[in-house]
Amino acid sequence: MVRETLTREKVLEAALRLVDEHGMGALSMRKLAAELGVEAMSLYNHVKNKGDLLDGITAHVFESVPLPDEGWGWETRVRHLAEGLYTAFTRHPAVVRTLAAEEANPRSPGALRVIDALVGALLDGGLDEAAAARGYRSLMGLTFGAALADSVGLAGTPAEREEPVDDWFSRMVDPREHPNLLRVLPALRSVDCVQDFQAQLALLVAGLRVSAAR
Fold first, then answer.
1. Does the structure show a pLDDT above 60 at 86?
2. Which of 28, 33, 159, 182 is the most buried (most CB within 10 A)?
3. Residues 101 and 202 in one domain
């Protein structure tokens, strides 16, 4: 049986599958090589080191985001890209945590095209360079935060507590001491992360619209 030729793309795809199934802690050159059925040393023909591997799978996640049609309005393009990033991040929560910890960066031409498209949409909306940079960071922070919140429970078993946190809040919130929190608490407990992301994205885009109009 002829062994399939190993490529960087196949190495990164296998690494991403390993991380998705077992978490970032399970990723090592030895385990990845076993997954691919090759010797660990052969991986170094396609990735320089562990850092290059982490950057590569991070870039792979960014590259999965479809680029918008350049003829679309700037707000539609921003929403399309932000929603695409959110979808990609929620599919690969371990990669998002690595990104958030600044242990990896999306270093590839394909990933840069996604980032360039997002910045370009902000510039087309009328924002200057500084405002576009702030808008880009805000959008990435929103997608990171929403995806991380959505992945709660996937990072492992939480430490045991005698009382669930929701029950603790309900018991401890005092109508006299915390009247505002008491009023909003039922809504906080009922809204899921996906709903929050869409609402937060709408608020952020509305704010960008105001900034652009100035």
1. yes
2. 33
3. yes
51 phi, psi to nearest 5 deg = -65, -40
Q: State how far the Cα of 132 lies from the Cα of 185, in Å rounded to an integer.
A: 34
pLDDT digits (tens, 9 = 90+) for 111-128: 999 999 999 999 999 999
**Claim to verify: residue 136 and residue 206 sit in the same structural domain:** yes
Residue 104's domain is classified under what CATH number? 1.10.357.10
Q: What is the pLDDT of residues 128-141, one digit of tens each?
A: 999 999 999 999 99
Selection from 208, 15, 19, 43 nearest residue 122 by Cα: 208
Burial of 90 (0-12, 13-18, 19+ CB in 10 A): buried
- With 0.70 as the threshold, say if the pTM is over it: yes
Does 160 score more than 80 pLDDT? no
Closest by Cα among 72, 74, 84, 73 to 114: 84
Where would I find the H helices in the chain? Answer: 8-22, 29-36, 50-63, 74-91, 93-100, 109-124, 129-150, 165-172, 179-190, 193-213
How many other CB atoms are there within 10 angstroms of residue 151's CB atom?
18
